[in-house]
Specification:
Elements (H helix, E strand, L loop, with lengths): L3 H10 L2 H14 L5 E4 L2 H10 L11 E5 L26 H8 L3 E6 L19 E2 L2 E5 L5 H8 L5 E6 L5 H7 L2 E4 L19 E6 L2 H11 L24 E5 L6 H16 L3 E5 L7 H16 L18 H12 L2 H14 L5 H24 L2 E5 L14 H6 L5 H6 L3 E9 L2 E8 L5 H15 L2
Parallel strand pairs: 2-3, 2-6, 9-10, 9-11
Antiparallel strand pairs: 1-3, 4-5, 6-8, 7-8, 7-12, 11-13, 12-13
The structure holds glutamine.
């Protein structure tokens, strides 16, 4: 891992051009498969930095961007054959902000197809390997964004989180990752999977760097109607917080051993720790998948092979053309979700599934609101297990169950961080820290103290 401070120190004695060229070369030789596309323009930007022409808070810093975030002139595939040759002609809001602050986008990171997955195994471009054990997954869906930070194949990265896709790879790769409050970061230019659940967020080697990237990407953007118009400035203010350990969010023995140690570490900081129960959580996973798949089925209707994306040379009948494009362009997980989502939204089943899921969503929101009246922050293990072996989770339901601790946060729209709390069998374990709406400052202040206990 390379922190921003370390990178800046290197920039004092070496040319940005050489450092970036070396990083690009290392990525090309890497077996991790963290990137789908490298940005050749990165070298030009590095040259500008060397000439003193690149300024800003991220000047000269390499940043990897998940491949569902639009980058003007750089291929953006969403990890899908459907968008294999798609190059946007505009930048996402977050990319504009990074460019304004002098950041160097080094490349686009590998991900589950349309962000649907927990292991990056659904990517059309192949699985991302875990830097701590190459036989294991790096997590997903932002697997490339997690692995690239952990392996020093970038300094910072951006992921997106619909049901855990930033926090899962952060946990599996041993880095920090934050899913911001819904509405803090503009989704303009994020290719949608499930709009009402997702946020773009930062991943980094340490809290200080995470906060820096969040400060840059958060803020007003009128092109996203759900944007809250709030900016973010990190002012560390640690207090002896009241911390709630969520009983319904747990993990296997490997994970729980480390998590319990982490809870002791929290106590040693002087925080008051108590257990809190949220019975409505048992419905969260089912509600999440119904809502996410419903939104996905509607969002993915746009891939018709006409306007953009995978297309076929001959148009015979419209229906046959449309079906063949989608049959060939989408992978099996995406098709499964389109079918299930369409089913849950269909006239006969809407009330039974979708509407019910929305009611559960309200229950979960209320549960969090109640708990956050008694506690400053809530904690849980981020993932219920250590990183899996590649191919280990063969059936979809087992895979979905791995999101049990992360999806309730997206249903409620709250911010949550994953922070490394040590290793079991040489594999990292992450702790999830959840706060109230727009309580990112509290989450990061707490995490900064915890990071001192564990070291970076
Ligand atoms: N694993 C979850 C899913 O497949 C979350 C993915 C995400 O956050 N993009 O829906």
């Amino acid at each position: 891992m390379i922190s921003v401070t370390e990178w800046r120190q290197r920039l004092e004695s070496e040319r940005a051009y050489d450092l970036v060229a070396e990083m690009l070369e290392r990525i090309e030789k890497s077996r991790l498969n963290a990137y789908i596309t490298l940005n050749r323009g990165a070298l030009k930007l590095a040259e500008e930095y060397d000439k003193g022409k690149l300024e800003g808070r991220l000047a000269g810093i390499p940043i990897a961007v998940k491949d569902n975030i639009s980058t003007n002139g750089i291929r953006t595939t969403c990890g899908s054959k459907m968008l294999e040759d798609y190059t946007p002609f505009f930048d996402a809001h977050v990319v504009e902000r990074i460019k304004q602050e002098g950041g160097i986008i080094i490349g686009k990171t590998n991900m589950d197809e349309f962000a649907m997955g927990t292991t990056t195994e659904t990517s059309y471009f192949g699985v991302v390997k875990n830097p701590h054990d190459e036989d294991r997954v790096a997590g997903g869906s932002s697997g490339g964004s997690g692995a690239s930070v952990a392996a020093g194949e970038t300094v910072l990265s951006l992921g997106s989180d619909t049901g855990g896709s930033i926090r899962c790879p952060a946990s599996f790769c041993g880095v920090v990752g934050l899913k911001p409050t819904y509405g803090l970061v503009s989704r303009y230019g994020l290719i949608p999977y499930a709009n009402s659940l997702e946020q773009i967020g930062p991943m980094a080697s340490c809290i200080e760097d995470l906060a820096l990237l969040l400060e840059v990407i958060a803020g007003r953007d009128e092109r996203d109607s759900t944007n809250a118009g709030k900016s973010f400035t990190f002012v560390p203010e640690f207090k002896k917080f009241r911390i709630g350990v969520i009983r319904e969010m747990s993990g296997n023995d490997d994970v729980m051993g480390k998590f319990e140690e982490a809870v002791e570490a929290v106590r040693s900081l002087g925080c008051e720790v108590k257990e809190v129960s949220m019975p409505s959580f048992k419905y969260a996973l089912a509600a999440y998948y119904i809502i996410a798949m419903g939104e996905a089925s509607s969002n993915l209707a746009r891939y018709d092979g006409v306007r953009y994306g995978y297309s076929l040379p001959q148009l015979d009948s419209w229906t046959r053309y449309f079906s063949r494009v989608r049959a060939e362009g989408f992978g099996s997980e995406v098709k499964r979700r389109i079918m299930l989502g369409s089913y849950a939204l269909s006239a006969g089943y809407y009330g039974k599934y979708y509407l019910k899921a929305l009611k559960v969503r309200t229950l979960i929101k209320n549960g969090f609101q109640k708990a956050l009246r008694d506690f400053d922050l809530l904690v849980s293990p981020t993932m219920p297990s250590l990183p899996f072996k590649i191919g280990e989770l063969a059936d979809p339901l087992t895979m979905y169950k791995m999101d049990v601790n992360t999806v309730p946060i997206n249903l409620a729209g709250l911010p949550a961080l994953s922070i490394p709390v040590g290793f079991v069998k040489d594999l990292p374990v992450g702790m999830q820290v959840i706060g109230d709406y727009f309580a990112e400052n509290k989450i990061l202040s707490f995490a900064l103290e915890l990071e001192k206990v564990y070291g970076v």
